[in-house]
């Protein structure tokens, strides 16, 4: 089903209500002052809050001077009023739509570079490639800009031209392209030779569950034996989308339990027709929130997935969207939700079954946990690949006096080992499958920087003989 039609259908069936789970750190900023408001709008908003807000607040507790003071009276960062322009911005964000040229940018010590070029976009048509440095926009240098400032310069009104100067190796090129509406896919997937599939879900947009099902089916045709679902840095989205994804694994039960302002508890039923029965590992971190926590909590409670990473954000509330009769929309917190086993999520989060710190160490550990696999990791200036599959995760490398130091957590993950910091001896202990070694602070084999430990590779190889490495021309290869 076309996702725009599907969203409209959802709004119609629910009488202008959509269950939304999104964290505040992805909510769009207000675009200046609120549009002219009427007494009828204010009265309608007060009525909706008093009759629906999860807190059970009464009208006398609200400051009804204007819409802004009404909302702020709640002390709820997830309840928001949108004028028509803000509403469009919110929906574009929810559906991963923006107007630009179709690139993802990164920043290193040489400046801004193109981390990814999306297919069928103005950037691809103009010839921009991964690894190109963006040195100027409209003839003005990008030096000293923040990433947000750069993005604001490149994005703009659909159909208008933007002129970007790139540097590729030692050559500068001036490229022109017309901005257009870009839809970023909500998820990406790949499958490894050992049958482990990997799906990274960036948002729970209205089409994410359909993409999820399609990519699962495609991987099954290629011999899918185990699965890693990555919702790190995913701030949430539509509840129905999370439910549809969960139905791929849960045959029958409850996705969540919701509690409203009257303390009435309601189970959200879920039924999967042909649920998968393969091992599932789910990656989460402190920025996994809302719908991400719904999915992780459900699969964890039903023992259908091992949740790995760090404790999640802790946004355990549900918002609905109300269309106002005189224009505008109100996103209102109407419920708190609990996991299937009734564990609290709000301001608590989901505690992983296996606590793993660090982007790359989390990824490698998840792949090792999903199914036996010999890891071959290659880190280049702007790309990281694991067994030939590209990822956006990175880690810091220290090169000093001919020696190369890599984060101890990454090395422990590659040798499929356990790692611990022993405060009494100020040492890092790594226990592999057949080897164990302690690297003590103050020795040449280890460096401590910004609360992280880095181990010199030659010394690490001496202690773990099956480990191999090569560092040449800025390209680092690690394998076991």
Note the topology.
Elements: H1 3-13, E1 19-22, H2 39-52, H3 67-73, E2 80-82, H4 84-94, E3 97-100, E4 103-108, E5 111-117, H5 122-126, E6 133-137, E7 140-141, H6 147-154, E8 161-168, E9 171-178, E10 180-183, E11 187-191, E12 196-201, H7 208-221, E13 226-230, E14 236-238, H8 239-246, E15 252-259, E16 265-271, E17 280-284, H9 291-301, E18 306-309, E19 317-323, E20 329-338, E21 354-355, H10 359-370, E22 376-379, E23 384-386, E24 389-391, E25 398-400, E26 403-407, H11 408-414, E27 418-422, E28 427-431, E29 436-440, E30 446-449, E31 452-456, H12 457-463, E32 468-472, E33 475-479
Parallel strand pairs: 12-13, 13-17, 17-18, 18-21
Antiparallel strand pairs: 1-14, 1-19, 2-20, 3-10, 4-5, 5-6, 6-7, 6-8, 8-9, 11-12, 15-16, 15-20, 19-20, 22-23, 22-33, 23-24, 25-26, 26-31, 27-28, 28-29, 30-31, 32-33
Helix pairs in contact: 7-8, 8-9, 10-11
Describe the structure.
- There is one protein chain.
- Helices cover 24% and strands 34% of the residues.
- It is α+β, with helices and mostly antiparallel strands and 480 residues long.
- Strands 1, 2, 14, 15, 16, 19 and 20 form a seven-stranded antiparallel β-sheet that branches. Strands 4, 5, 6, 7, 8 and 9 form a six-stranded antiparallel β-sheet that branches. The chain has a six-stranded mixed β-sheet with strand order 11-12-13-17-18-21, sandwiched between helices.
- Helix 8 runs parallel beside helix 9 and helix 10 (359-370) runs parallel beside helix 11 (408-414).
- The longest helix has 14 residues, at 39-52.
- The radius of gyration is 25 Å and the shape is globular.
- Mean pLDDT is 89; it is low at 1-18 and 24-34.
